[in-house]
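Input.
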Amino acid sequence: MNLFTNGCSFTWGGSIYPKMYDSSGQLLDYYNTSELNQERLRTVWPGQLARLMSADTCVNLSLTCASNERILRTTMEFFLNPANQNKDWLAIIQWSLPERFEFWSDENNCWAVVSPQWVTFNNSQSTTPAEQTDAFLKHVYGMQGYKTYAQRFWTQLIAMSSFLSSQGIDYRFTRLMRLPYEHLEPWQTEYAITQLPWIADGRIHDFGQMFDPVNRMPMGHPTALGHEQVAQYIWNSIK
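Output.
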């Protein structure tokens, strides 16, 4: 069995690892071979879950600040690679905040993650001025709201579910907070709750319930012990 995971900082190791680049300016993602990154991959819950389930391979494509758009895009890219097909996978997707999104920056030659408060470039050499970023955020988020975020997230959930099912991949979902039910149609809410494979009950479950509050860091991220508890929680739910 091979384990695949994707998510945002709660799967990447936010707060434990405060910087998204290593000392040479390289992004701390799954493909970074530095010792710091290898330590990170062993510490966070996917690495610990892989040990519990004796997984042959553990792939953790999460990234701090990641949007659900990135989670969907990189998951599809990974499983459409012929080298990753025809294998026995369990995929666990930790969904991020629905108001985030991504865009490709030609100026910085990298992907950027956008939230209502900031823009983060996946490149330590990014050059976009702060005043330009502020103007961009005011423009974009002046035209969006919770209805938009909820419907976008709904589409991403269904797209991910359909894609993984079409690839014959066993999968589970979890999320940072409850679905914004009040901004979905009743049939959408019922479908999301009853037809999608959440790690626990779809009506009440969120990622924060997987670890003890005493192991919650100031930004809400789990400590190293919290990651261990998350791994044990998921293992108890799926084994």
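Helices lie at 9-12, 35-43, 45-52, 68-80, 130-141, 146-166, 186-195, 224-238.
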